[in-house]
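hi support,

uploading two proteins for the ticket. first:
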Amino acid sequence: MNDGVTIDFKVHVTTGQFGSRVLHAGERATPPEVPAGRVPRISKLMALAIRFEDLVRSGEVADFADIAELGQVTRARVSQIVNLLNLAPDIQEDILFLPLVAGEREAVSERAVRHIAAEPDWARQRAAWRSIAGATAGVRTR
């Protein structure tokens, strides 16, 4: 029995649990566009330093030596990473939000940031950070 009514809409099929096919109304959602590039290494290390501090403060690990043992790295390397926490808070924030790296070369090197972190005066740290960050395009400075 055909009464001349036609319904027209789009559907798409996805794979469900155990390989079954699932029919969905509407067009297939487009995946979000992934920005080109990767997170700078120094940004990852800054985040790792913050995580290490949280682990010790919460009591999940006894001290940074335990972190070194669990991570199968030397205590010296863990110290290098944790010393990034000696940076002024605004520099830490800048490091966490550095722009993505498109090529192989990093805009800011870990070694340069370690030298800044060794300076106890935050005003001098900020001046040194501005000289490093100002020399690289795309790094924000205050």
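and the second one:
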Amino acid sequence: MVVEESAVRRGGRFGRILIVALLLVVLLGGLWTWFSLSWAYSEGERAGVLQKFSSKGWICKTYEGELAQYVVGGVAPQIWYFSTRDDKLAQQLSSAVGDQIRLHYTEHRGVPTNCFAETPYFAESFTRMQR
């Protein structure tokens, strides 16, 4: 009878340790996600023609865009990919496809999943340029 009680206690202790470890992993993952999305590694501006803007994803819908950066006329452009999480900005960018724009962005490295964006570059705002 004493042996059975100690086996039950050890099994209960292992279960509690496992639950605490799992909760700790989930908590650390949540903190890392919050940190990587709220702290910008870098920020800057890029200019070019907004070539494509779309909503993508099977489960996690994200807004993704392509900015064609022309260095010299007649030379193939460099394509720069970016994302945005702001619905209002996404609507404005969608109406600017084909226009020359200047895009302000922040870079967020280490975001643990593609549910937030496919790229580390998040568009914050933009202005249309005069041609």
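thanks. also noticed: Residues 2-38 form the longest helix (37 residues).
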